[in-house]
Amino acid sequence: MSETPATAEKQTYDFRRIEERWQPFWEQDGTFEVDPDDPRPKKYVCDMFPYPSGDLHMGHAEAFAIGDVPARYARLRGYNVLHPIGWDSFGLPAENAAIKNNAHPAEWTYSNIETQAASFKRYAISTDWSTRLHTSDPVYYRWTQWLFLQLYNRGLAYRKNSPVNWCPSCQTVLANEQVVEGACERCGTPVTKRALNQWYFKITDYADRLLDDMDQLQGAWPDRVLAMQRNWIGRSTGASVSFAVEGDDAEPISVFTTRPDTLYGVTFMVVAADADLAVQLVTETKRAELETYREGLKTVSEIDRQSADRKRTGVFLGRYAVHALTGEKLPIWASDYVLADYGTGAVMGVPAHDQRDLEFARAMDLNVNVVVDTGEEDPATSGVATAGDGIAINSPKWQGLAKDEAITRAIEVLEHDDAGTAKVNYRLRDWLLSRQRFWGAPIPIIHCRDCGEVPVPDDQLPVTLPTDMRGEQLAPKGQSPLASNEDWVSVDCPACGKPATRDTDTMDTFVDSSWYYLRYIAPHSTEEIFPTEQVNQWLPVEQYVGGVEHAILHLLYSRFITKVLHDLELVNFTEPFSALLNQGQVLNGGRAMSKSLGNGVDLGEQLDTYGVDAVRLTMIFASPPEDDVDWADVSPSGSAKFLARAWRIAQDVTSRAGTDPSQGAQQLRRVTHRVIADVQGLLEDQKYNVVIARVMELINAARKEIDSGAGPADPAVREAAETAAQILSLAAPYTAEDMWAMLGRQSSVANSVWPDYDEALLVQETITAVVQVKGKLRDKLEVSPDISEAELEAQALALPKIQKYIDDDGPVRKVIVKAPKLVNVVTS
RNA sequence: GCCCUCAUAGUCCAAUCGGUAGAGACAGCCGACUUAAAAUCGGUCCAGUGUGGGUUCGAGUCCCACUGGGGGCACCA
Q1: How far in angstroms lies nucleotide B50's C1' from the CA of residue A163?
Q2: What does the alpha-carbon distance between residue A317 and residue A307 come to, in Å, rounded to a whole number?
Q3: Which residue is nearest to nucleotide B59 (CA to C1')?
Q4: Which enzyme class, named as a word (predicted)?
């Protein structure tokens, strides 16, 4: 903390020395701890918490460097900042490691967490470590279980038997969101279907609100994320239509259609072959055929089933439906091209105007009735269904109407005849949350022979995982390893006291992560899930930062849970994250880093070679935060060079701390204040890369002033150096802190006061006005910034060059003047 | 097929309201310092904004069409 007199011997910038000096300082000083009684306005900046898979990698380095910028800036602007950290510490990799190493998943998990925590401290994230939470701690998952029971009590958690996505490798079910192109998101194994009794959250009840509340997020969340969620929810409007079924006791079949105007074109009905409905409808003579068909489907992978050029297959069920309007007989078929879990699992076949139906009709030799004239070739001969707009034909009750009017009319007719109604349908399915694995929060339900499903009473929570299961005992067997632990499974029924069994499934880890941002407010509370009053003060999260890979899963689930909590009156807001920033990926050579490509870059090595600050600065400077960073295109050594250059400016300053800058070199002061003003706007706009460019500009200007201007003693140089240290503290905390100390200011720079810029210094003494003739630049003028339009026009027209153009091009038709920057002379 | 998004020097990227295409950096080249090199300092080269139209006095910026890259959804009736 020397005064660095001009005569003192200069040190060189040594990032290792600086890191070793300041990391312990921040920890002892409690620089980033949150005081709950702090009266200043609150700001909550949150990074998506990491999964503890080994040590931190380049992706973490980018995400957390970016997230730290708004957190640190809010601090400098005088906010009481909450910037917490935790771990998403349940999940399959821990279990796989445990099986391999004959250990308990907790060992691998908590050891990795410690490694990551140490790396985070080295990486100097401005975090309050007392907020730290782990979703695998009983003190946390007790409340995950409590949350489950709240949903259960509201009828939002239920069990149903239905065909589900099954990953044969992970030996567990998968949510729809976890199936990517027919394969398991985690391991890439083709997913198959299996009928299982599973737990679901009724997220579909919230489909409308999840969609409509996106209006609040417009502009504050990336467009593509909103688009993806909209896509995923997939609202489509149309009608439900009921078709009577021939036979004594047959229930009518209800279908959903977006094209009720094509009703007269229905020539057959199709039900999903894997749905119960098919079994109910089939006649005895066809039963065996249907069973054979259904058996065959089980072996077909999702990828094959979805391939477009597959042949249409199906079984006639031997039964007929009755057309709702014409009374015509319609054969009922079962096929795998109809999905059991969308709509009602049945469709009306309109081969003329739906490609899938047409292909099916051609394969099964069914009639094709054209009822919309689109001016295209007859689908029956072309093989191409005409799905576009057109005029209704062969449709007595809406003959001649255009598509939209025909749809409206068709719904009126259906409602009048009691045969159907307007209907909205969603692509979104209920959230399948049970997993047949060990390392997750057990579902707090007890199954009793007499009482059925019984929730675990509140005072018996948490239902903890056994701590003595390890290695092979955890191997996947198609049901949870917990099922084989009889001591754990056997329990007295809380309702009747008789012997009963625990539910042996565990919850999807997305349940854990759907509410952790609320828990950060009081991570150690054993009394309640979170303190509502304080949560309402801190939340919604003002800036949420994380990767776009969570655009649907985590973010949709969190939005859903927040709405449920709102309905339970536990929070007073309906959206958890007011603003979202998706940082890009870190690539190397144009591609994601991966072992198989051998292009991985080790974060630890980068930190050892260039220092923490240089790596952080590189991440931020490389590109706008939402763009990818290609490590092959950037220069951490260049960043290190710049940091040394900035650091030397602070070292060169010879004026004393507290020196009044007002008499300092005006030119440098103008730069400094311009930079402060610009940087504020850039930070608001999340253009963090440009912020760094501005500090570089400031450092360059200060260097010039020291070497060939007013010299190191000038107060403007100190002002520039202090400003640079403050801005740099957002991205390069070690260097900034050391500069701040060298400048004789009290640490920490992280809690310093952001400088006010002086408006007067932003005003230029003269400004360069451009003079155009017909929009082309022809001359320039140095003018006062407050010149009048008339004066500027007069000066511009008087310029000899401009006169010459006027003479050549003909008379002046119009002069556009935008004082003080531009004159455009329009000649004819 | 539908939807979102991007395209500016060799490279990564800037450019409030439509108003001088360049703030910053990497790489390159030249110079100063040095016995030499490194480090440092200074200087310098480099595009008319993917293509074609349109609006305008004026377009990187707004509109339309197309091309190319990235991403999402897709047998969803």
Answers
A1: 48
A2: 25
A3: A775
A4: ligase
Distance in Å, residue A795 CA to nucleotide B57 C1': 19
Torsion sign across C-alpha atoms A319, A322, A328, A332: negative
Q: What is the pLDDT of residue A301?
A: 62
For helices A688-708 and A715-728, what crossing angle results, to 10°?
Answer: 160
Distance, CA of A705 to CA of A714 (rounded, Å): 9
A423 touches strand B (CB under 7 A): no
Per-residue pLDDT band for A507 (boundaries 50, 70, 90) equals very high
**CB neighbours of residue A392 within 10 Å:** 26
Answer for A826: CB within 7 Å of strand B.
Answer: yes
CB of A681 within 7 Å of some strand B atom: yes
CA A310/CA A373 separation, integer angstroms = 29
Look up residue A645 and give its two tokens: 């250059």
Checking each nucleotide's C1' against the CA of A637, the nearest proves to be B26
Q: Are A230 and A426 in contact (CB under 8 A)?
A: no
Asked if the Cβ of residue A144 lies within 7 A of any atom of strand B, the reply is no
Domains of chain A and CATH, by start: 23-134+518-597 (3.40.50.620), 143-211+224-231+431-510 (no CATH), 235-426 (3.90.740.10), 635-761 (1.10.730.10), 767-827 (3.10.20.590)
What are A260-292's pLDDT values in tens digits?
Answer: 999 999 999 999 998 888 998 899 999 999 999
Q: What's the pTM?
A: 0.91
Provide the ipTM.
Answer: 0.94
| Contact criterion met (CB below 8 Å) for A6 and A712 | yes
Alpha-carbon distance of A723 to A302, in angstroms, equals 59
Enter the DSSP assignment of A474.
Answer: G
Those residues whose C-beta lies under 8 Å from the C-beta of residue A613, and which sit 6 or more positions away, are A15, A639, A640, A643, A731, A732, A733, A734, A735
Structure confidence at residue A821 as a pLDDT band (50, 70, 90): confident
Whether A313 CB is under 7 Å from strand B: no
A286 is in an annotated binding site: no
Q: Which residues pair with A167 in a beta bridge?
A: A172
